[in-house]
Amino acid sequence: MKYDFNTEKGQFFLYDPETGKEWSNFLFNDMGYICTVAHTGATSSRYLNEDAISIAYNDGQSFFYVRDEENKKFWNIGGYPTVAPIDEYCCEHAQTYTRISSVTENIAGEIVYTVDPHDTRELWRVTLTNRSDKTRTLSLFTYTQFSLGGFSQPFYYNMKTTCATEFCEDAGGLWCENQNPFKPHKRCSGYIVTSLPIKAYSGNGEKFIGTMGTPTIPRVIAQGLDCANDHSDVRSRAGILQSQVVLQKDESITVYYALGLAEHKDEIIQSRQEFYEECRAIFETRLSSPSPFGSLSVSCPEPQINRVLNHWAEHQIRLCMLGKKAVRDNSQLAMGILNCDSDKAGEVIKECIVHQYSDGHSVLLWYPVVDKHVYSDPSCWLVYSICEYIKETGDIDFLDQSFAYLDGGDGSVWEHLERAVEWLSALENYGPNGLPKIHYADWNDALNIPDENGESVLMAMLIGCVYLEMEQLARYIGKIGYAEAVWEKYETLKNTVNGVAYNGEYYVRAFSRFGTVGDHDAQNGGKIYVNPQGWSILSGICTEERRSSVLGAIDAMETDEGVPLCSPAYVAFDEAVGRMSGMLPGIYENGGIYNHAGCFKVMADCRLGRADEAVATLLKILPDGKSNPSDITTTEPYVFTNCYLKHPNCDMRVGSSWKTGTSAWGLMCCYEGILGLQRHYDGLHIQPAFPKQWETVSATRRFRGNKLNFHYVNKGGSSVSLKVDGKPIEGNVVPLFSDLDEHTVEVTLV
User: Angle CA(726)–CA(709)–CA(286) in degrees, nearest 5?
Assistant: First the structure.
């Protein structure tokens, strides 16, 4: 696979478009407008407002075509969808733009995509240069199919019967008015405009493509025709603009397009010159400015880590926070983004707090609808994220802020935490073995045990961590009685788990009326699950005398390719396990290499100082390594994926990437686990887990308003010696600064 990285600037360069699947970039702004750009040049966009209501701009993908008016040959700059031969192909995915270039028929083409930082639209900048010895006449076509849907509406209403296109000459493009009476807000109409004079247009994609045509061979383009200046019907609502340019030898032209959503067509009416200058300024800023995701950085001996954990992991987490609306998911994403943006993490955590019920449990999902099922784990993640936020910011006053409960009433953040502990401790939420009920499911959505008294061993460990976090917080703010009470709960739970859930070698996964899940005698699959093993370490529930056998079980589960969620995979559906056993063996939760769970294992390794094991597993999780080359997995080399599939039909391939909590945990594995930059209430503790062969490492991180530059020297030990701004300090805690300045921290492992 031909590609390069610029890890300092967060740029990825691809030189071969045949990747096995789309290698995408996601561009977005603070308004919630998200544009997906494939390495082939195809785009799709949607708008997710503050109420988590999604409006899709287009139905399918948008394309840009070029046609030579002399020989009628046509192509795309990125090669798709026409699949016409292109030369000198290059795709540059960066943090705020994507740039694709190629040469076809002696026409050099470049198209740059970005999202307007202050509007709900994607922008294209197209530059064409005539490299031939003669004058060239070129027709330029855009193609998009308006969707403008994605929201809830009565059955007989749809976008086909409530939207219509019109040509808007004053705006230089097509406007598609959304007249649906059930549209959730005003910003639901679409448009496409250009800085060039328009020769012809079409609002009817069906006629443009043709009955026998496809986007690969659109009838109008392939037959050398012009658009018919027609409009949408109930089957097709398109945005197709046709312009024509004449280029002399060596002459270039730059053209701009905007595709987006607006409340009223008056918003898009402006002169072509105004539009041209506005776009030019945005692109100049995007292309010249440094990455907005560069405050957190690492330089270590492993290129895989440097490629993904500089810029891209933060980029991926921020996207997931826009695209996901779930207490479990968003709390974990907030924990990851705390390492580089505590303000953003705070926003996400506050959004999660108001999706907790007054009895203390939290909703799993609130977009696109509130999930009414009771999941056992979301409030655990809410507690962790709040505690981590206070450690990161030092903002104890946050505990006094008041937030609503989802079912009415309100309470301070501390009261929300107390309610969570009450629900997680309530006797009615425990089963016959004294372990927490799994309810509809726990962290593993696909482990749906049809038993109202089914118990989750993993939940016991997650609750154990809740008790530990609350005990620390309570002591820090002077609530000693509360701290002692939750510590007693922790000790009781620890004893219960060790009394019933350890099978002599490792911890089982669950109990129900059907029997035990994740035990030696399982015949259909799932003899062992990784999460109870890793979380037994992270929660401290695993006793010292059992640690070696549990670690041995984890190590035996791990393969050369990574860590499966369970092993072996289930070979047939099992009612006692639920949905995951109905998947093909090796698919996702059913025995796939499940990277999110693998990250939990990495953090457990770091907790115990197993540096070699931690780094080895992280390198199997990160894309395009020795165990998971991208020419086999087909995943992008710059972002995390949730799972490498292990079914023989798709061995080590991926279903999708980008939208996964693995991004947050992968970032935490690197910066908090391996680099050991661990926030606490009294400051930043340094406890690295470095392999012996890592001699020097450098990193940057902001903490409580100060930029900290870390320089590590590994002399082979595990004891930490610190110098701050050249002065030795005792212990492993970086002192708190009040100057909001830049400081150097030298870390020596001796």
Answer: 150
Tokens 């905007």, residue located? 258
Beta bridge partners of 55: 47
Determine the average pLDDT of the residues in 721-732.
Answer: 97
Radius of gyration of the chain (CA): 28
pLDDT of residue 354: 97
Q: How confident is the model at residue 577 (pLDDT cuts 50, 70, 90)?
A: very high
Q: What angle do CA 633, 636, 638 make, to 5 degrees?
A: 130
Alpha helices in 443-591 (DSSP H): 457-476, 480-500, 531-538, 544-557, 579-582
String of DSSP letters for 502-513: B-SSSB--EEET
Does the pTM exceed 0.85?
Answer: yes
Q: Classify 370 as helix, strand or coil.
A: coil
pLDDT digits 0-9 by tens, 28-76: 999 999 999 999 999 999 999 887 788 999 989 999 999 999 999 999 9
Q: Name the nearest CA neighbour of 315 among 666, 738, 750, 633.
A: 666
Do residues 12 and 24 lie in contact, with contact meaning Cβ atoms separated by under 8 Å? no
Give the residue from 616, 615, 509, 606 showing the smallest Cα distance to 559. 616
pLDDT of residue 323 exceeding 80, the answer is: no
Contact assessment for residue 118 and residue 128, using Cβ atoms and an 8 Å cutoff: no
* Average pLDDT value for residue range 652-676: 96
Beta bridge partners of residue 517, listed in sequence order: 510
Omega within 30 of 0 (cis) for the link into 81: yes
Q: CB atoms < 10 A from the CB of 331, how many?
A: 29
Which DSSP symbol is given to 145? B
Nearest one of 318, 307, 308, 325 to 340, comparing CA atoms: 318
Instruction: Give per-residue pLDDT as tens, 365-414.
Output: 988 788 999 999 999 999 999 999 999 999 999 999 999 999 999 999 99
State the Cα–Cα distance between residues 467 and 187, nearest whole angstrom: 45
- Cα dist. 472→376, 485, 523 in Å? 23, 12, 43
How buried is residue 59: exposed, middle or buried, by Cβ count under 10 Å (0-12/13-18/19+)? middle
- Buried (b) or exposed (e) across 80-111, using 16+ Cβ within 10 A? bbbebebeebbbbbbbbbbbbbbebbebbbbb
Asked whether the beta carbons of 565 and 587 are under 8 A apart, the reply is no
Structure tokens at 572: 């047939």
* 476's tokens: 């820090």
The torsion region of residue 598 among left (phi > 0), alpha (psi -120 to 50) and beta comes to: alpha
Helix (H, G, I), strand (E, B) or coil at 700: strand
Mean pLDDT of 77-90: 98
Alpha-carbon gap, residue 235 to 165, rounded angstroms: 12
Residues 6+ apart with CB under 8 A from 45: 33, 34, 35, 36, 56, 57, 58, 62, 122, 259, 260
